[in-house]
Amino acid sequence: MSVPVVLVAGLHGVARAAVVDRLLRERPGALAIHHDLREIAGGLVTRTVRDAAATLEQTLVRLEHGCVTCTVREDLIPRLLRYADRAPLLVVDLWDCVEPRSVAEALDHPGLDGDIRLAGVLTAVDAELMPTDICRGELLSEAGKPGAAGDGRYLAEVLAHQIEYATALVVPDTLPAALPPADEDDLRLCRELLGHLAPMTPVTMPGEPLPPLTGPALCTRELAARVDPATAQLPCATRTPAADTVVWHRTAPLHPARFFDAMDVLATESVRSRGRFWLASRPDRMLAWDAVAGIVTVEDTGPWLAALPEPAWADVPPARRLAAALDWAPGRGDRVQHLVLTGPGLDQDRIHDLLDSCLLAPDETATALDDPFAEILDLDPTT
User: Fold this and answer.
1) Fewer CB near the last or first residue (10 Å), C or N of the chain?
2) First vs last Cα of the chain: how many Å apart?
């Protein structure tokens, strides 16, 4: 019988440790493994193994390369396998800046079947810090939380990805005695914002039971489909006292220059925005929009399904074919504009008017359009 493994992620180390402690208390004999990455730039990490009562092992590990991938491959997986026959539950206490997806996918390996199975991905959230941190447009290195030398990720970006990938979100009720309990207003605001960012993900608040960690191993392809641009389960339009989520869904192509000019407004007026879109200048390419705390990423994610020859559809994952079918229409196929923006006091009509003004007008032609995205995407605009 394989041993369940639960990943506990989160930028907020105190909250994460409280969730790990609770898992160890509620599952007697469970073990937690943690890698301290403060010295990873020099190829060194400190590994700690503990149970509910004591630290069982603390070792300085020297890696061939100083990166999270090497830590998982060279040390975490061998350690999980070593303890698989000694514990009813293995808890991976991820370092602050580690996004759980890469670790989850490393554990979803055929060679590990029968020994360990991924049972859950929890992200611990500090109710007081989260509403502020999701707005912090600073690099991890500036916040003292880099994952490797030259880590160019942003703090709010990592926090958003930790929240959105998780199978459950936990706001702990047990914090160090030196810290005051969470304020009721903080808890209310935190839960409200989590409902905007990850509305389909269960949230455990103080005093509530943790989600069950039983059943078959999680499928990381299904976890990825929840967040990948082509298949993402994007939030619906929602209005609450502290924030609004606005959805813009259209079928006409975007004029590349006008949309490029609108990017700053979209990114700065919202706290979090994401989705997929298409430009008149590159009708065969699905482009992904991902922005948090004013930091925008635009990526080419490959062809729209309608741009592929029909025989190639058999090689496309079922989740992608289903998502395409929901957007499908004669003439354009699955090409769609689907952007979702979340922030305080968003004016839906104003955002819709701005984005609608970026659409290609009926009397405009897609040929010879100026495309400022060409340099960002590093693509030949003719492809």
Assistant:
1) N
2) 50
Q: Buried (b) or exposed (e) across 118-127, using 16+ Cβ within 10 A? A: bbbbbbbbbb
Instruction: Quote the domain boundaries for residue 30.
Output: 3-225
Judge whether 21 lies within some domain.
yes
Q: The dihedral of CA 309, 310, 311, 314: what is its sign?
A: positive
pLDDT in tens, 346-367: 999 999 999 999 999 988 887 7
Are 7 and 35 in the same domain?
yes
pLDDT category at 14 given cuts 50, 70, 90 is very high
Three-state secondary structure call for residue 62: strand
Query: How many CB atoms within 10 Å of residue 78?
Result: 9
Residue 360, in any domain of the structure? yes
153 in the same domain as 268:
no
We report the CATH number of the domain holding residue 206 as 3.40.50.300
Q: Hey, what's the torsion of the CAs at 144, 195, 232, 170, to 10 degrees?
A: 50
Between the alpha carbon of residue 221 and those of residues 7, 25, 101, 306, 369, the distances in Å are 16, 31, 10, 22, 37
DSSP state of 59: E
Which among 191, 225, 259 is the end of a domain?
225
Residues 210 and 125 in one domain: yes
pLDDT band at 262 (very low <50, low <70, confident <90, very high): very high
User: What is the C-alpha to C-alpha distance for residues 62 and 351, in angstroms, rounded to an integer?
Assistant: 51
Task: List pLDDT tens digits, range 83-122.
Answer: 999 999 999 999 999 999 999 999 987 666 678 999 999 9
Pairing verdict, β 282-292 and 272-279? antiparallel
Give the containing element (helix H, strand E) for 332. Answer: none
pLDDT at 177: 54
Q: Is the pTM value of this prediction over 0.85?
A: yes
d(CA 276, CA 300): 10
